[in-house]
Amino acid sequence: MALECAVFQSLSRRKNFQVGVSPEGNITGYEHKIPEAKAGAQPTRDAAQKTAQDFLIAKLGKPATDWDFLTEEANSERKPNRLDWRSPGKSMDSG
Question: What is the pTM of this model?
């Protein structure tokens, strides 16, 4: 069973982050929810995965080789001013 923690800033800034943490203290998931109408990029699947891998390395200190990216399960969702991707993955430590 993993712990899920949501962090919110003031409503005027509308930032919402969710992080999943295993009982061993490993990060099992991360989500940054962005307001529906906020403008952004229209990345390809490969570009979105590279962004996620770069995040793991730069922010979490996790090399991409520690994760199994389930690219066949990645899916996109068109928003009014951007394209969002959800790309599941699992930690190689999670068994």
Answer: 0.63
